[in-house]
Amino acid sequence: MSEGPTRTKPRPSAEERRRAILDAAIVVFARQGYHPTRVSDIADEAGVAYGLVYHYFSSKEAVMNELFTERWSLLLDAGEQVKAADRTAREKLGEIAGFIIDSYRHNPELMKVIIIEVTRAANSFGRTHLPEIRRAYDQVAAIVAEAQRSGELRSDIDPDFVGRSFYGAIEQLLSAWVFELVPATDEEFDAAGAMVVELICGGLDPRDA
After folding, report:
1. Distance (Å, whole) CA 42 – CA 37
2. Element (H, E) at 42
3. Measured between alpha carbons, how far is 103 from 127 in angstroms, rounded to an integer?
4. What letter does residue 115 receive in the DSSP assignment?
5. pTM for this one?
6. From CA 91, how far away is CA 86, in angstroms rounded?
7. pLDDT-derived band at 204, boundaries 50, 70, 90
8. Residues 116, 92, 121, CA angle at the centre, nearest 5°?
9. Could you give the C-alpha distances from 28 to 24, 38, 159, 181, in angstroms and in order?
10. Domains in the chain, please, with CATH?
11. Considering Cα of 44, then 27, then 113, then 68, what sign does the dihedral take?
12. Maximum distance among all alpha carbons in the chain?
């Protein structure tokens, strides 16, 4: 009794190959750092030919830029939705903090790459992406400014300063997990966002005369 024809595995689509290269780059960048990594390292991790990486990306830097832009765009989109919602400033900042912390919870290697190779790299990637980074700060500043106008938060603190402080606190949290200074547990993740919001909003609560 003859067996039916052997089914060949369908070839990955162009988008699947491109995604595999990006996912491999996350692993390699997180494992050995951006600067020591060669394009051939990414190709080996992805299981593709060296030249295929260059088919989709002009350089190693283009791969890194794509990884950052992809994740940061999601953050900015979430921030716009939160900013427009009918909620208190505490709730809005809590949602933004929660989004970032959940991003680390679900994809720690990617967030490690973004923290170490982009937001901390003031002379290279950080400067290149400064406009996008500032947009995130501006979203928090806008939330705070609106709450100051309504009397929900005290008005004698510069909203732009609050935006930078908020993201500074978030970055320190992520760095502590990246460098294994504190446990990366679900309990720690759940508590961290609330502590950041309390730190910021607690200092901005209206003072009694």
Report:
1. 8
2. helix 39-46
3. 23
4. I
5. 0.86
6. 10
7. confident
8. 15
9. 6, 9, 38, 22
10. 11-57 (1.10.10.60), 66-204 (1.10.357.10)
11. positive
12. 93
